[in-house]
Amino acid sequence: MVVIKGKSTLSDEELVTDDEMDDLDEKVSGSESESEDEDVKLSEPSKNAIFNRDGLADKLQDISWPENVGWIHKLVIDFNQEQEVDVNDDLTRELAFYTQALEGTRQAYAKLESMGIPFLRPPDYYAEMAKSDTHMEKVKGRLLAEKRNIEEAEERRKARDSKKLAKEVQFQKQKERNAQKKAAIETVKNWRKQRKQSGFAGGDKDGELDMPFEDGKVFERSNKKRPGVFPGDRSGGKGRQPLKKGKNGPEKKKFKRESRDSKFGFGGRKGLKKQNTADTTDDFRGSKKGSAAGNKKRKMW
Amino acid sequence: MRMHQRDPKRTLLGWKDKPEAKESEFPEVKETEQIPPQQGGFRNKEKVLVTCSRRINYRYRHLMLNLVSLFPHCKKDSKVESTSTKGATLNELVELKNGSSSLFFECRKHKDLYLWMAKSPSGPSVKFLVNAVHTMEELKLTGNHLKGSRPLLTFTANFDKDTHWKLLKEMIIQIFGTPKDHRKSKPFYDHVFVFSIVDDHIWFRNYQPALGMKGILYLNIRGWFSHPNSTTDGSLVAVIDILYFCQSQFFYSNISVPHNETDKIARGGLDKMTLIEVGPRFCLNPIKIFGGSFGGPTLYENPFFVSPNQIRALEKKQKAGKFAKKVKAKTRRKMHELSNPLEPDEFADMWKE
């Protein structure tokens, strides 16, 4: 809250000295962060403000209702606030209002109940409300949207967390694997050293470590031939169908197509299929025709 | 309209109750007793005229319309030019409409809202500056209540602290309270007005009581008002979390029909009661109280009041002061340099052999 020193600063600005100017500036810098409609107050009451207590009391007497008017006409509840409320603290201020209203309503309802007056609307009493249904629809929409936003944010947070966790697990695994590898290499080194120290004593075979990767076969594909599967066939021979009896046109074509699909593959990456293997180099079945008629460019020269 | 013989006498200046008649003829009515409608002989026939000035801006106009929708005992009138003679015009208007009081929303410079609250025909009248306006249309105010049901009025005890507050309280009771048995009012009590004096301002709030869990929604509104995460109060944050759990169960069924409760409150029902804010909100800063209606002798002046015009002028001046200060500092420096010349440098011609 901005506080102005007195009326003098407002009225005779011309007489303000440098020092006072500094003072004012400090105040401004303090107040700039606050919102515009923050109300300003004089720090001390102005001297010549009128306060006619007798006149006020007279007027009060004039307008007030007769004293014996029943409570039901006024519906007034006084609430005794225990402590001073700080205006600038929104939360406590609103809480004070809330408690005041709550306490007041409780007292009022107790009174009404003791008088036997109905005070809550029965469920079948429909009447115009202060806010229209369309407006309440909007209110509801907003609340739901808020709820949804919160849920979504929660979900995002969870996903982020799980991702982080997964990364960590992956890292751990990698570390473990590296450690294993290192250990394996270490053992081999040790074994070699030992062997050297013992002067290759046990001959060639005896000192061999029985390690699965020593025979060098681990990284090769199994040489087992799969029946009916051409090399490089990724479908594993499934493209090839059992022979069919009828050798009519479409049937025959189908068979051809199938066999070709099985041989050359259908779909998938081509890179591996086009490589030569020992089998294909030995195979001269299709080469005669191709070399004679295939390359027209070469023939021209 | 039939006046009872034993009624207090109504003079030109309002109700005058004779003290000798009071003792003998009016038995003290106990509050716990049930009062039949005609007993007591008093009938409140308050009628409030609500108008605003021309060139009012939309927010304040909405506030006015909100109040019109809250008061079944009011009459809205067309806008009034806010000139120096507006008092006479308004008095005439109130008389024409048979009003006994009036609320006049005067907007100046499209920013400042002044509220005149006047009793007619013989005063008093009060001029307020209205701050911190929130209308009922705001979506964060989720409550709702019957249109035209009579409000419960709660006042803080500091309304009885001083004479002018007492007068204001009486005026507010008469103007904001809906007369009993008003033909447009509804016979239930489902909202409560809060009038609270904090920092010499009158703060107004309007709540709807809710029996049951529904009221937890209210915290949602408070969460909006100032950010819940910024508070150190952990419990509040926790309750707001509960809100989203409860909402799904209670909100859908109850928001359009807020009172599924029966008349009888279950034991402990009052303890479980919560409130939902309906709006509007505003804060009244009393400036002056006059003896008459829209005029007359000044009975009270707020000694702390600074008009928003003065505040703005001061702000402008301070901004202008920045430049003036710089100029002044420059001249001061020059003067200082002139008055304290540097000593001649003894090594100045050292290398000029």
From TrEMBL, chain A:
InterPro entries: Ebp2. Keywords: Coiled coil, Nucleus, Ribosome biogenesis. It comes from Salix koriyanagi. The lineage of its organism: Eukaryota, Viridiplantae, Streptophyta, Embryophyta, Tracheophyta. PANTHER family: RRNA PROCESSING PROTEIN EBNA1-BINDING PROTEIN-RELATED, RRNA-PROCESSING PROTEIN EBP2-RELATED. One of its GO terms (biological process) is rRNA processing. Pfam families: Ebp2. Residues 151-167, 203-222, 248-263 have a biased composition (Basic and acidic residues). Residues 1-46, 151-301 are annotated as: Disordered. One of its GO terms (cellular component) is nuclear periphery. Belongs to the EBP2 family. It comes from the Eukaryota. This is rRNA PROCESSING PROTEIN EBNA1-BINDING PROTEIN-RELATED. Its main location: nucleus. It is found in: Nucleus, Nucleolus. Residues 11-25 have a biased composition (Acidic residues).
UniProtKB/TrEMBL annotation, chain B:
Keywords: Nucleus, Ribosome biogenesis. Residues 1-33 have a biased composition (Basic and acidic residues). One of its GO terms (cellular component) is nucleolus. SUPFAM superfamilies: Class II aaRS ABD-related. It comes from the Eukaryota. The keyword Manganese does not apply. GO terms for biological process: ribosomal large subunit assembly; rRNA processing. Its main location: nucleus. One of its GO terms (molecular function) is rRNA binding. Residues 1-40, 331-353 are annotated as: Disordered. Residues 46-295 form the Brix domain. It holds the Pfam family Brix. Residues 343-353 have a biased composition (Acidic residues). PROSITE patterns: BRIX. It is found in: Nucleus, Nucleolus. Belongs to the BRX1 family. This is RIBOSOME BIOGENESIS PROTEIN BRIX. It comes from Salix koriyanagi.
